[in-house]
Amino acid sequence: MPWIFFMMSGVVLSHAYEARFRTGMGTLDFMRARLIRLYPLYLAGALFGIVVTLASLRGGNSQNWDSSSLSQAVALALFFLPNFSARPVNEIFPLNIPCWSLFFEILVNLLFVVLWPLLTSRRLIVVSLLTGVVVGLAIAHTGSIDQGSTGSSFGVGLARTIFGFSAGVLIARHISRVHRGQNNLGVLAIVAVVGIAIAGRPQHEFRAIWDAVCVLVVFPLTVYFGTLIDPGSRLRRIATFLGVTSYAVYVLHSPVSSVLNSATRFFAVGTVAPYMGLAVLAFLLAGCWLIDRYIDMPIRRQLSRIIPKKQASRAPS
After folding, report:
1. What is the largest CA-CA distance in the chain?
2. Could you tell me which of 219, 226, 164, 132 has the C-alpha nearest to residue 7?
């Protein structure tokens, strides 16, 4: 779901940081905050991916890794850098594929803080329209939005990120003046729309139209209406839990899936479906909650103490 993730990121970061930019927060402090937030769990996912890949070398090694390609992939992954070699896997983050979107997130965060003085709402509208056209043309050309994770689709991935993030910033700037209210039915309706958009994707010739409408129209509207309402107290607890675990689930689900896929070769898990799937989901959510609470948050607090801030002068009033 990177397409909606980028929009939500634009909303959240605009609300959290644009006022700080106006009072003097600079590029180094902003990027320090973003890397502290994203890198620890990213590193955990990368290390998990490395372990899974090393384990595959002792098995079938179906992807044909060798010591040279693995060493290069590991070195680049540790420094949060894309791998353009396409060897042996044509992915810019071959050890943990979903991390391509995190790289683009960091890249667009950097563009956001550097160019922020120039990012008027009018200019953001122009940027959103131009990148939206690029995304639409890419979908029409390939037949789907599933682009950005490979070196050959790097430009499309960047356009996807800029479009979503710019739309999110525009939404945040607008809804700052709108009164929010509680509406559980509205929240559930938004969840249903997103679920249908993702799970209901048709195949073949209608896939491109579906993806284009969802990415360029449905998801921006969904994020916009989602910023206007809050869940009630009971639903808020569920939403908070899912929000807390979501990043860990996203970063870790790919290597976990690889382990589970390998396990299915030795155990007849199909005979206990769907109960096994529900058990795995519950285990993943609980595990990611524990990881966030007892590993990621303490590490981020410690990094915030260790890594110094650059003292910024306040903007003149």
Report:
1. 68
2. 164
**Residue closest to 244 by CA, chosen among 295, 169, 183:** 295
What is the torsional sign of CA 215, 220, 225, 229? Answer: positive
Residue count of the chain, please give it.
317
Q: Name, in order, each residue with C-beta under 8 angstroms of 138's C-beta and a sequence gap of 6 or more.
A: 145, 147, 153, 156, 159
What is the separation of C-alpha 130 from the centre of its chain, rounded to a whole number of angstroms?
22
CB 148 within 8 A of CB 157: yes
CA distance 226 to 240: 15
pLDDT tens-digit series, residues 123-176: 999 999 999 999 999 999 999 999 999 999 999 999 999 999 999 999 999 886
Q: Which two tokens stand for residue 248?
A: 């860990």
Measured in Å, how far apart are the chain's first and last C-alpha atoms?
41
Q: Between these two residues, 61 and 220, which has the higher pLDDT value?
A: 220
CA distances from 245 to 46, 79, 225, 291 (A): 18, 24, 23, 9
Tell me what pLDDT residue 162 has: 97
Quote the tokens at residue 299: 């590490």
Which residue in 38, 32, 29, 97 sits closest to 63, CA to CA?
97
**Could you tell me the pLDDT band of residue 317, with boundaries at 50, 70 and 90?**
very low
What is the distance between the alpha carbons of residues 234 and 251, in angstroms, rounded to a whole number? 27
CA distances in angstroms from 297 to 78, 163, 220, 239, 285, listed in the order given: 20, 30, 30, 19, 16
Contacts with 124 (C-beta within 8 Å, 6 or more apart), sequence order = 166, 169, 170
Q: How far apart are CA 130 and CA 139, in angstroms?
A: 14
